[in-house]
Predict the structure.
Amino acid sequence: MTFAQRLTAPGWYRAALGTALMFAFGGALVVGVRALYGWDPLFNWDAIITVGALIAAPFGYLVGIGCFDYWFYWASGRPTRPEDHSGHGARSWKDYFRVNTDHKVIGIQYIVTTMFFFIAGGLMAMLMRAELAQPGTQFVDPNTFNGLFSVHASLMIFLFIIPVFAGIANFVIPLMIGAPDMAFPRLNALSFWMLPIAGVMMLASFFVEGGAFATGWTAYAPLSTETPLGQQFFTVGVQFAGASSIATALNFLVTIITMRAPGMTFWRMPLLVWANFTTSLLVVIATPFIAGSQFFVLLDRSLGTHFFTPGAGGDVLMYQHVFWFYSHPAVYIMMLPGFGIISEVISTNARKPVFGYRMMAFSLVAIVILGFTVWAHHMFVSGMFSWLRVPMMITTMLIAVPTGIKIFSWLATLWRGVIHLRTPMLFALGFITMFTLGGISGIMLAVVPFDIHVSDTYFIVAHIHYVLFGGSVFTIFAGIYHWFPKMTGRMYDETLGKLHFWLSFIFFNLTFGPMHLVGIDGMPRRVADYAEQYATWNAIISISAFIFGASFLIFLYNMIASWRHGPAAAANPWRAHSIEWQVSSPPPIFNFDEIPTVVGGPYEYGTPGAVHAVFKEKAPAQVPAPAGGGGAPPPTE
């Protein structure tokens, strides 16, 4: 391919050219408008970076990489071209670095990309714990520390937990429901390519004048309207992450509703499908609210509006209400897919049907509904109307009921099961423990007097990490280990997987457990220095955090080495029932030679002759699997 062809064909050359051209166009637009109105100075670098680098350049990158080529071709009125599927499927490693419409490739793109941002956020956490290992200033000044915890939290929430669940679901959901792909493959690809834009923006905020945004992941106004330029990187980056999330959720909803295989009724769907269906509802309803909150901040910063300026008729508390109306449902956006993963892992490794399958599905729907009724418990000390505290306290306690249903259903599924303590199962059991502890502290925080006492202390840090790391991230590891053979066609190293779990479980608790104690004693969060009385506990926390962080290197090595050199995986190494395990590992490009017909439930373990789905008997790979999913079950089952 000649250089001229490289610049005109979709790909990295054209993406670089498009990024540069659109940045120049955005900058010129700012200068032109300022010249037209006679503003001085003509070159306002804050405005040029905001419009050129943060808004125009990303669109140039998306156009250049090829996200819009097919749509531009159609919109221009040119004759419809046949789909040659050249952009579908992975035939070499290079296919993972271009726009691809295969949901399986997109799923792996999501997972690998989010792992990069997970590492970046984790390194920031390690630097923070090094600073906090003893009182005084060791490595960073307070303003840099504020930037570290702000970018750390934003990367972990917007660039890791939420999108990595989308990656796992992207790979698994179409296979689980018997679909050949997602409903909108090109929109699926665009959803992924918007994600690294948001992450790069948040990391790039460290390199502008004034440093990274230092307002936390909450970016409370009016602080966020008055901070240096780095805040713009968060404000615009969240818009791209949110747009990616909404597009993905719409795709899941349409796929699950319209593309289920024959016989796949809603009450035959695996619980992971139910979990992603309800999560997608949450995303579509809630995410526009955080987009709105950040648009308000952007307008206050860039155009001089006064949404959050009390002296000009603005309302500071409005930001918190709008922000938390998204951000508390976002907790369940980060939890519900994990609930689905744990249901699959526990049922498969306990060789038992999920206890109370329909109640599990109903509880997912109940969490979606109740999730919108509890947002103001984050504002008990904000100065809002005091009478609003009591109903928010009640609804916060009430939402523990559907969550409790799930905990007891998982425990009942384990009861008298034939339990296989493989790595995914260990992470599932660790999740139940950690999430239960996080839920208990959540109920404590629902009590208004207690919440007032520990507000803005390390008790809050402990709670959120028990919920989002002990909860969400443990389920992510469980899911990656569980479906790793299906994704790669290789088996991971079980010994390394178990070592990863035990180091994570032990040192997670040694890191975040003591934070409850120092929090109740009054140690404030989000500070780079602290009183001498907390020194011993902070030294223990920091040492544990370093070992906890190092344990991830075991996971990383296991995944990379096993993907390259691990033993070949069977189609169904776990003898599971759901449809994705009835095709080869990795699956064919379009998933199925024949669309399966679903004839039973996905969890009928222990039922002789039970079959979840049947295929037309024209090839050995299409013979229906028996009850064990890959051979007769052992006598004990």
About this structure: Residues 570-637 form one domain. Strands lie at 597-598, 613-614.
